[in-house]
Amino acid sequence: MSCYQQQDPIFDPSMSSTYSNITCASAECSHNRNGSYTGLLRLHVHPRDTVRRVDSKGALVLLRRILRPRDPNNNIHGLFPSFLFRCGQNNQGSFGRINRLLGLGPDQLSFVSQTAQKYGQYFS
């Protein structure tokens, strides 16, 4: 695994009490167009989970309770209970040493596609 230098620690699935593996025969994995995922992960993140480092290669990560849409009064309106994230295995660039990047690709696992039913494929 190759990562660019980051300021914050990288997620360590062993630090989550709700982490479990996803098999390649899973429905989540079937969304992959090029068949390149390895070491798939399912993760239900609790706000108190500790984030440390990741050692999974080419992982697909399912996070729950992460995206919390809010109105102008800061009220939570809903969650995306089964949001899928992919973890890169050969990341290059500086990105200001930020360790959280959001990909906006066109496939079924993109942020825009997964939130389309709620937001109509709008993103800003």
From TrEMBL:
Q: Which GO terms describe its molecular function?
A: aspartic-type endopeptidase activity
The record's listing under InterPro entries reads:
Aspartic_peptidase_A1 (IPR001461), Peptidase_aspartic_dom_sf (IPR021109), TAXi_N (IPR032861)
Q: Which GO terms describe its biological process?
A: proteolysis
Q: Where is the Xylanase inhibitor N-terminal domain?
A: 3-124
For this protein, the record's Gene3D superfamilies field holds: Acid Proteases (2.40.70.10)
Family statement drawn from the similarity comment of this UniProt entry: Belongs to the peptidase A1 family.
Name of the molecule in the record = Xylanase inhibitor N-terminal domain-containing protein
